[in-house]
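Operator note (shift B, R.M.): manual run for Hemerythrin-like domain-containing protein requested after the automated queue skipped it. Running by hand, logging everything below so the morning shift can see what happened. Input copied straight from the record, untouched. If output looks odd, do not overwrite the archive copy; leave it for review.
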Amino acid sequence: MTWFRAVENDLVGVILDDHQHLLELFREFDCEKAKSKRKTDMAKHIIKQLALHDWLEVQFLYPTMQKIDCTATHHALDAHMEAETLIEQLLSGDMDPESEAFREQMSTLITDVRRHMMDEEFNILPQLRKHFTVTELVNRGELWEKAKACAPQNPRLAPALSLHQGITAAQLDLNPAADELSAH
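Run finished. Output pasted below as returned.
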């Protein structure tokens, strides 16, 4: 969705870029032969990228949205929890990555994430545009990119950013009611 993209590197823009990257990975996965080593490797890469994106959204997007729209936030976090459950099942080792069950579970995950991304793009991200200035969103986008660059290799294992990476707790406070932010 680029119809409400105002600035390339603001929070909305970087989330949209991540969504576009994930959609490209999903298309590649869907086009790959049913049984192949490449498809198995792609599934692992998609899962890693989804886990990273999920971690970033939970750190940056949803604390903000909780202050703006509790209902939308709870709905989105439910979708994240469902995706996390599917990811955990895929990573549990109970399914052979080359099995039909694994491919079906992966397809379910991709379908659910596509639906969730559309919901974010039409219902959540526009609210960020409404409640924050361009400068505030650019600052948050820069923090997102910095966090992405120093994120743990397995985001599922890390509950929070390492503060020694130069991202302070205050920078992660995305409360639109905070004095530094001018919600409008």
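Quick read of the result: Confidence is low (pLDDT under 50) at residues 157-184. The chain has one domain: 11-169.
Leaving this for review. - R.M.
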